[in-house]
Amino acid sequence: MLKSNYQKIYSGNQFDVKAIVEKLHSINIEGVVKDESESGRLAGFASAIPGEQDLYVHNDEVEKALELIKSHFKK
């Protein structure tokens, strides 16, 4: 198995993920979004219900990203 330099920090709906990604960009962290339902749709396996998206960041940025997520949901 390949070792990844990225760690999943959040799973949720597309709206929360997009908001978090925008906040990550504001502190110069690049998030990677993985959307299994969109991947399936593009491969020809249509899905009427959008699934959760997974958000990954580089291992060096996990702590800062998790702090940002905590503050995002304190509202």
> How much is the average pLDDT?
84
How many alpha or pi helices?
3
pLDDT < 50 stretches: none
CATH superfamily label: Hypothetical protein rpa1041
Walk me through the structure:
The structure is a single chain. This protein is of the alpha+beta class and 75 residues long. The chain has a single domain (6-73), classed as Alpha-Beta Plaits (2-Layer Sandwich), CATH 3.30.70.1530. It is 43% helix and 23% strand. It has three helices and three strands. A three-stranded antiparallel beta sheet has the order 1-3-2. The longest helix is centred in the first third of the chain and has 13 residues, at 14-26. It is globular. The mean pLDDT is 84.
Write the layout of secondary structure elements.
Layout: E1 6-12, H1 14-26, E2 32-35, H2 36-42, E3 53-58, H3 62-73
Antiparallel strand pairs: 1-3, 2-3
Keyphrases for this structure?
single chain, 75 residues, alpha+beta, Alpha-Beta Plaits, 3-stranded antiparallel β-sheet, 3 helices, 3 strands
Could you give a short description of this structure?
With 75 residues, this protein is of the alpha+beta class.
